[in-house]
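Whether sequence alone determines local backbone shape is best considered at the level of individual chains. When preparing material for the folding task, we compiled for one chain both its residues and its backbone structure tokens. No coordinates are needed to read the tokens, only the vocabulary itself. For completeness, the protein is quoted in full, as a sequence line and a line of structure tokens:
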Amino acid sequence: MSIIINDLVEAYIEGLYRSRNNFLKNLREGAEREGVPIITKDTENFLSVLLSIHRPERILEIGTAVGYSAIFSASVISKTKIISVEMDEHMYERALINIEASQMENRISVLKGDAREIISDLNESFDMVFIDAAKGHYKSFFEGSLKLLKPKGIIVSDNVLYKGMTASNEFLLKRKRTIVKRMRAYLEYLYHHTEFETAILSIGDGVAVSVRKVEE
């Protein structure tokens, strides 16, 4: 059994975290106080490195919440344009306010509605897709994004370990059985997808990174 990932190590890594700017710092603190789900600090650090390497010009985000991850991503790569999709009316309105306050409204667009329907109507192409929405629909989000993803694009799926429930029934809550069953099927689907290479990382609540294969 690995001793690398434990509470003490996680606390140490979290202690190294520094916010990119005061706006994001205040937005994170507010979201955490209210219990609004946003990317964890170590997931944020990982995304910062991934974005810096991949340097996507266009990102499709599925699940906006209060706009934290979209604003963060736009702050990492100055030329990135982001389309984010949010179904919840309240979150959608809050995201618009936060994006305007961050002065990112010319680079981040938020579409309100069911992502499965919205992405089926999009005719744009993206270098990266970030999935962080309803856990039971990740496979539908992934499949719907394929036609929009550029040949060397990547798809990042957040919260795939789902508080450990995906990995072990020891942590499984009865009311979450259907979602966990679907998440397990989703990860099996990713690992056996012939067009992608996928790695699952035990960062935050679990992150899956799927890279479209390039023919030699």
Summary: Residues 4 and 135 are 27 Å apart (CA to CA). DSSP finds eight helices and seven strands in the chain.
